[in-house]
Amino acid sequence: MEIENTVAVVTGAGGGIGGAIARALAARGARVVVTDLDEASVAVTAADIEKAGGSARALAGDAASQEHIEAVIAAAAEAFGPVDLYVANAGIGGRGGIDATDADWERAIDINLMGHVRAARLLVPDWVERGRGYFLSTASAAGLLTQLGSATYSVTKHAAVGFAEWLSASYGDRGVRVSCLCPMGVDTKLLRPEAMPDDPNGDLMQRAVETAGEVLTVEEVAEVVLAAIDDERFLILPHPEVLEMYRRKGADYDRWLRGMRRFQASLLS
C-alpha cells in the first residue's frame, strides 16, 4: 500500500505504540484520525501531527464501542474521505490468573478482540466494493506464544491473531490487506505503568516480558510497522527472535511448555 494520501484511523493513539504509528503515518503523508479513551492525550497526538505539518483529527472514546467506531469512521469520511487503513491498536493488559473474574474476561475480550471485529464488520464490505483497504491488528508476541502472569491477555491476544488470520484468508484475494503486529517488550505504560499494583501476577508478567528480550521504543516499533505496510506483510515482528520461538513451540509443544514452566520458576525464585 502507498501510505501517502491515504486516510487512516489509529486507535489507542493517545500515546505508546498507537501514538507513534499515527505520527509515523502522518509523516509519510497519511491523513489520520486518532482516538483514545484519554481525551487530553489523543488531542496532544493530533496537535503534534498538525505542528509537524501533517493532517489529523482527534476523537476520544472507547475503541471497543460500536457507536464510537461508527463515529470515528464518519469523522474520517467528513474530514478526509473514506478510511483506507484501520489500525486496531487499543488494548489492555489485565493481570489476572485463574482467579480472573467474568468481568475481567469480558473487558479483555471486548477491547482486545471485539473492537477489531466490530471495526472490520463496518469497514470490510466497503473495502471489498472499492477493491482496496488495509486492516492492521495490534496483537502481541503473547498471541503466538503465551503470557506468564495474565491468562486474559494471553488468550485474547491469541484470539486477535486468529481473527487477523481469518480476515486475511477470507478477504485477501478481494483487495483487503491485513497485518498483525506481535511485539514482545515495548516501553509503554502497558508494560511499565506509572503505579504498579501490588499484584504477584502483574510482577510476573512484567518480569517475563523484560527478561525475554530487548525492550524497544515505540518509535522503533512504528518504523517496523510502516516497512511491513509497504511490503503488505502479514506478520509484523519487531523482535525477530519471536519467529524462532514460535517455530520451536510448533515443532515440539511439550518441550516448549516444559521450557515455559522452567522460565516461570526462574522468575519466581
UniProtKB/TrEMBL annotation:
The keyword rRNA-binding does not apply. GO terms for molecular function: oxidoreductase activity. The lineage of its organism: Bacteria, Bacillati, Actinomycetota, Actinomycetes, Mycobacteriales. InterPro entries: NAD(P)-bd_dom_sf, Sc_DH/Rdtase_CS, SDR_fam. CDD domains: SDR_c. Keywords: Oxidoreductase. It comes from Gordonia desulfuricans. PANTHER family: 5-KETO-D-GLUCONATE 5-REDUCTASE (PTHR43669), SHORT-CHAIN TYPE DEHYDROGENASE_REDUCTASE-RELATED (PTHR43669:SF8). SUPFAM superfamilies: NAD(P)-binding Rossmann-fold domains. PROSITE patterns: ADH_SHORT. Transmembrane segments: none annotated. Belongs to the short-chain dehydrogenases/reductases (SDR) family. It holds the Pfam family adh_short. This is SDR family oxidoreductase. The keyword NADP does not apply.
